[in-house]
Design brief:
Layout lengths: L2 H5 L12 H11 L3 E3 L2 E3 L8 E2 L9 H8 L4 H11 L6 H11 L8
Length: about 110
Amino acid sequence: MSKLLEHSSSRPQRRTEMTPEAQRIAIAEACGWKPKGHYWKRPQHKTGDALRMLPDFLNDLNAMHEAEKVLKDEQLSEYIEQWIEWNSTAALRAEAFLRTLNLWDYTK
């Protein structure tokens, strides 16, 4: 059983989840996305290449696979060994990604 499933029963009662929007923003920022007014600029792209919406990290495995590429070797090892199972959903991977980077925040 993954630690995410084990953790679910030990979470604080007041606020048990980051909002989906807070998770998307935290993952995007960890991956180098920058807010530009009402838009988000992708990392390594020119000024004119902005998107209106961030990737749907919580529902899109392809987006999470792209996010996973920013993890350093030791972070990737923790992510895989401590949090991820082979059949983890995009939402579980998103939470694991944020926990691995110590970005999971119960207050958001």
